[in-house]
Specification:
3-stranded antiparallel beta sheet, 198 residues, 3 domains, binds zinc ion
């Protein structure tokens, strides 16, 4: 929902529009649909006000965007979400063409994980196989040994497919105490305590 009215929904078209999807029982295609609702302004006894939205409760037949078969009696909608349906079609095509992660089967462009906090799958080629951004980290980690040792810690970067220096152990030249520093802070040879006592 867009943040129109200081973070709260208002009665603009965007706020009144609800998005939902109906899975086709014939081909499993996810039909993304939109419906425009009606907004009414309310104010309760405590003085809290805002908009509540209501949507038509009747049903409507739907022609599957992908296989054109009729799906009877779905939740009332106004139209397809063209952008989403086109994207879903492309994902279907890519799936058929084997454009998927070799490890988890995710397809390019597909949403993986929860709607919020998930990510859009992007496939990366590694040793002639395709992997999603999440699986490639596991694969890379297993294939390339972690160079971490007693004085250096590395973390695996899924974008560059390299172990990158993360923390270094540095002993303070003044009190000789060891501490872990983020790699970019390694120039701070002296510990904070000694530095402040200079
Ligand atoms: Zn709005
Ligand atoms: Zn269908
Ligand atoms: Zn994967
Ligand atoms: Zn020190």
């Amino acid at each position: 929902m867009p943040n129109c009215d200081f973070g709260g929904p208002c009665d603009c078209l965007d706020c009144r529009t609800d998005q939902f999807s109906v899975k086709c029982p014939h081909c499993e295609f996810s039909n993304d649909l939109t419906v425009v609702g009606h907004a009414s302004y309310t104010r309760d006894k405590k003085g809290t006000s805002g908009y509540v939205f209501s949507y038509p409760t009747r049903t409507k037949d739907l022609i599957c965007y992908s296989c054109s078969k009729v799906i009877p009696g779905v939740r009332y909608y106004d139209s397809y979400n063209e952008t989403m349906c086109q994207r879903n079609l492309k994902i279907e095509q890519d799936k058929l063409n084997g454009f998927t992660c070799s490890s988890c089967d995710a397809t390019e462009g597909e949403l993986k994980g929860p709607l919020i906090g998930g990510f859009i799958v992007k496939l990366i080629k590694y040793e002639n196989k395709l992997y999603c951004e999440s699986c490639i980290v596991d694969i890379g980690r297993k294939k390339i040994p972690d160079p971490s040792n007693n004085n250096e810690k590395y973390i695996f970067n899924g974008k560059t497919l390299k172990w990158e220096l993360y923390k270094v152990k540095i002993s303070c030249p003044s009190c000789h105490k060891n501490r872990w520093l983020n790699a970019e802070n390694r120039w701070k040879t002296m510990c904070k305590k000694c530095y402040l006592n200079l």
